[in-house]
Amino acid sequence: MALSGEQSEAEVLLELKDIDMRFGKVNALAGVSLKIRKGEIHSVIGPNGAGKTVMMNCINGLYRPQKGDVFFKGQRINHLRPYQRAGLGMARTFQKVEVFGGMTVLDNIRLGRHVHFKSGVLSGAWYMGKTKREEIEHRQFIEEEIIDLLEIEQIRNKPVGMLPYGLQKRVELGRALALEPDLLILDEPLAGLNLEEVEDMARFILDINEEERWRVTCLLVEHDMGVVMDLSDRIFVLNFGNMIMDGTPEEVQNNPEVIKAYLGEEELYATRG
Amino acid sequence: MSTTWLPCGQYHQSYAEDHSWWQTRFIKGKMILLFVILFVVIPLFADSYGLSICNQIGYTILGALGVQLLIGYCGQITLGHAAFLAVGAYTSTLLVLEFPWPAVLVHWGLAYPISIIAAAFVAGVWSVLFGLPSARVKGFYLILTTMAAQFITVDFILTQYVSQIGGRGQAFSLPPGTIRVGPWVIDSDLKVYFMMIVLVILAVAVLANLLRSKVGRAWVAIRDNDISAEVMGINVVKYKLLAFFVAGFIGGIAGAFWISNLAAISPEHFPWFWSLWLVGVILIGGVGSIHGTIFGSIFMVVVIEALQLAILPLADIYPKLLMDFLFIKEGTFGLAICAFMIFEPNGLAYRWWQMKNYFNLWPFSY
Known about the structure:
The complex is a heterodimer of chains A (273) and B (366).
Chain A: E1 2-3, E2 12-23, E3 26-37, E4 41-45, H1 52-60, E5 67-72, E6 75-76, H2 82-88, E7 90-93, H3 105-112, H4 121-126, H5 130-150, H6 165-178, E8 183-187, H7 195-210, E9 217-221, H8 225-231, E10 234-239, E11 242-247, H9 249-254, H10 256-263, H11 266-269
Parallel strand pairs in A: 1-11, 4-9, 4-10, 7-8, 8-9
Antiparallel strand pairs in A: 2-3, 2-5, 5-6, 10-11
Helix pairs in contact in A: 3-6, 5-6
Chain B: H1 15-19, H2 25-45, H3 48-73, H4 81-98, H5 103-107, H6 111-131, H7 139-161, E1 172-173, E2 180-181, E3 184-185, H8 189-211, H9 214-224, H10 226-231, H11 236-258, E4 264-265, H12 272-285, H13 290-317, H14 320-323, H15 325-343, H16 347-361
Helix pairs in contact in B: 3-8, 3-11, 3-12, 3-13, 4-6, 4-7, 4-11, 6-11, 8-9, 8-11, 9-11, 12-13, 12-15, 12-16, 13-15, 13-16
């Protein structure tokens, strides 16, 4: 385990402290610690089965680790349910797309704004006045900020289940963005995309990380080493539940242990393009 | 919304237009025509038999809307919805018959309307009670827990205990004149019809509005993918229970409305088969569509009535047909569901949608 490189002085957004996650006798995560600072793109890499997705599930509350603490914005959030964590400003996309197939693209993204809608059941049933104003306000935001950014104008009224995989991934990103999150967890956003779609997606990730409008801190899980090395500010390497190192892309590339565990298998993890 | 086909050259210029129900003048005209038919043409020209069929359809719609909400929109399969209709009907009956109403309310004919609202709330809460297992179980297991609602409510509580109130035993009779709404005594099919049409329109409007606002989207999200719904900030348990409440609420209104059409009410009006029937209605009409609920209700009621009419002349030749009509009815029900599942799994609502598209795009449908 090596912690090196100058870590920026920005405020810590998310902190994992000594997370232990076991399933029976399988130690999926063993004493993992991680600090993500505001504004970073922080990647997590590791071979298949290393525990990356388990780690993401621990962060957004789908799993409860047996040991260790999760801090978000300085607040201990171990006891919070996933929907409460979403309310704090944590959004995520999934490795296999988990969109709402029966809803239109627009409704999927609107649903992402769920935590920002204030109107209740009664005013929803009546729909005039408050609810209507609110719906239109949010519609404007969605159209002008998200649909425009992700370039999905022409499919906004299509049911998501009928779209090709690449577009579904894009809609899922849009849905997560609609939450206006502070931390965006991207679990393999590039898996299964073709080269052009990969380039688009990488551009979107950079956009939402760097543009003044968004400034979203990203936690990226990805296998495509070329993209990871290019996008990331820091990289966290995981191997069978153990943290190998956390450092800048250059350090990771030169670390013999990482090369042995992961990068060395050139045939398997060769980058695209 | 906004999936409406707009005629060439017509564009929306604001989001409000895109969010409205009736987006073109043609659609507005169609809807006004529909209202004229519902409020003027049918009451003027239909005879008592026709009106009674309409009332039957309305009752089925009110009952099936709750099932549609639970199964079609929230993905919580329920097979005990008749229980909540029964709770509504019994609450309303007991309130009207036994509650010491102040003379003023009785004088103004408010006892029954108030009892409908009370019945809706009681049925809603009762429904939430049986929706609680949905926090833990899904799919087939939930079907069993909702069936428990049916057997506990109707076969046990209502039959064994509630029916004993007042020492009547089996049924509560509703003497003529007890059901009053304002100045009108509900004693004819026409008056029941007007009450039905108002309640159905209200229920459909409320449900449709809910479905295009925050609550409805959360329900559909839970149906499509409950894990990512939770990750996107939806309190899944809360919204499931809310769905059960609203479904029970509408069911309560349906039950409370139906007593206006009955001379007496007994647990036999709410058998388990009626719960199954309501699920059949939405399967035939189309799961996940309010149109489907309405089309399914019309289809089921009309087909059964037509069957009855067709069998009457045959009964002269083969009298046993009349005796066995219940079996014929249930057989038809099963056959209709099988046929729809095989040939039109998306239900009548999908056919309706296809027809509309055909005419909207005609003659160049590409």
